[in-house]
TrEMBL record:
GO terms for cellular component: plasma membrane. It comes from the Eukaryota. This is Uncharacterized protein. Keywords: Cell membrane, Disulfide bond, Ion channel, Ion transport, Membrane, Signal, Transmembrane, Transmembrane helix, Transport. It is a single-pass membrane protein. The keyword Cell membrane applies. It is found in: Cell membrane. Residues 1-16 form the signal peptide. It comes from Tenebrio molitor (Yellow mealworm beetle). InterPro entries: KCNMA1_auxiliary (IPR051432), Leu-rich_rpt (IPR001611), Leu-rich_rpt_typical-subtyp (IPR003591), LRR_5 (IPR026906). It holds the Pfam family LRR_5.
Length: 401
């Protein structure tokens, strides 16, 4: 009887221990008092008055974390270390002014990051570096004025980067280096400085739109290193002067659109066959100075030049004889317009008498010099007894002209 009692007591104690252990296992971990832990994977810390990120109090298994409308002026390096299962993070509505380098290091599963409605003014070097598996970063409605070089280094799987509704003035060299598979990259209006190599290292982009910029010039090397782009659209902007080699190093572009811009002048437009640009579309631009034909090299698979406005002055002959006319003079003059002189502003080129417009003096002089060179070259190939007299005559006659 005594043995049975001991056995029963032991069984009851064992059962109580198992019950206690089960309760302990299902009991959720501690939760920051300012937060609501909906589960071990979803935590809301919104409008909680937090001044520091409570990483040590959060469940290590959290996957969705919302920290909106708190007071985090600085996101420090490795600010979320230990939250290795985090997939979605929102920091909207905070007073973030600085993001330190490698702030989000140690988050190998992070896919979606949102930092919007903050006073953040600079996307600093390496701020978003090392986010190897992130697919979306939302940075709209901040105060961002500058994107520094290598800000996104190593974020190789980013698909969507949204920078709209920011007063971005300057994009530094190599700002997007490391982004190697972006489907869409959205910029805000008002960009005033694109440094050379601004897009260097930006590889494989589905759609890249640059609109409403106010540039003094499109500098040499602006697009150097930009490659494998589905659509590059430069539109509704003041481009100033397109400098020589502005498009140098731009390769494998399926569609290059230059739409509805004001262009003061084109020093050189050099798009070689080796750059593999499929389609160039020049539409709706106001070009204030006609480029010389020899400054244009357009080796693209398909070219469309329509609804543009050019000066209808003595340089028009150079335009119509150059590559922009695309071998179809009648189509070109019927689909493009005059911007000057004032009396023909807005009229199709086909409405004016082009033959009545005299050639510019430098074109006439250059033509005479070329003709003189050709004549000299031809006569000097004749028999020696005739060539001396004839070459002397051509030289004297050419000088007199």
């Amino acid at each position: 009887m005594l043995v049975a009692r001991y056995l029963l007591t032991g069984f009851v104690l064992a059962l109580a221990f198992v019950h206690f252990a089960a309760l302990t296992m299902i009991q959720p971990p501690s939760c920051p008092p300012e937060c609501i832990c909906l589960s071990q994977t979803q935590v809301l810390c919104n409008s909680g008055g937090l001044r520091e990120i409570p990483v040590k109090l959060l469940p290590s298994t959290v996957e969705h974390l919302s920290l909106t409308r708190n007071h985090f002026p600085i996101i420090k390096s490795d600010a979320f270390a230990g939250l290795r299962y985090l997939r979605k993070l929102s920091l909207d509505g905070n007073n973030i002014s600085i993001i330190k380098p490698f702030a989000f290091r140690g988050l190998p599963r992070l896919r979606d990051l949102s930092i919007q409605q903050t006073p953040l003014a600079t996307v600093a070097q390496f701020a978003f570096a090392g986010l190897q598996n992130i697919t979306s970063i939302y940075l709209s409605h901040n105060k961002i004025k500058k994107v520094e070089g290598y800000a996104f280094a190593g974020t190789s799987n980013l698909k969507l980067l949204v920078l709209t509704n920011n007063p971005i003035i300057k994009i530094e060299s190599n700002a997007f280096s490391g982004l190697t598979n972006v489907e869409r990259l959205n910029f805000p209006s008002g960009v005033r400085v694109l440094e050379p190599d601004a897009f260097n290292g930006l590889d494989t982009v589905g759609f890249l739109k640059l609109a409403f910029m106010d540039l003094p010039s499109l500098k040499e090397g602006t697009f150097r290193g930009l490659t494998n782009v589905g659509v590059l659209s430069i539109q509704e902007s003041d481009l100033g002067v397109i400098e020589s080699d502005a498009f140098d190093g731009l390769t494998f572009i399926s569609n290059l659109y230059i739409l509805n811009n004001k262009i003061d002048g084109i020093q050189e437009l050099n798009l070689t066959q080796e750059q593999r640009i499929g389609y160039l579309k020049l539409q709706g631009n106001h070009i204030l100075e006609i480029p010389r034909a020899e400054t244009l090299n357009i080796g693209v698979d398909k070219l469309t030049v329509i609804a543009n406005h050019f000066p209808c002055d003595c340089h028009i002959h150079s335009l119509l004889e150059g590559p922009l006319a695309n071998g179809s003079l009648l189509e070109f003059i019927s689909k493009n317009y005059c911007i000057s002189p004032l009396e023909v502003n807005g009229r199709p080129m086909s409405d004016i008498d082009i033959d009545s417009i005299g050639r510019c003096q430098e074109e006439v002089t250059r033509g005479n010099l070329e003709a003189s060179k050709d004549s000299t070259s031809m006569c000097c190939k004749m028999k020696p007894q005739l060539s001396i007299l004839l070459c002397s005559f051509v030289a004297v006659f050419g000088n007199l002209r």
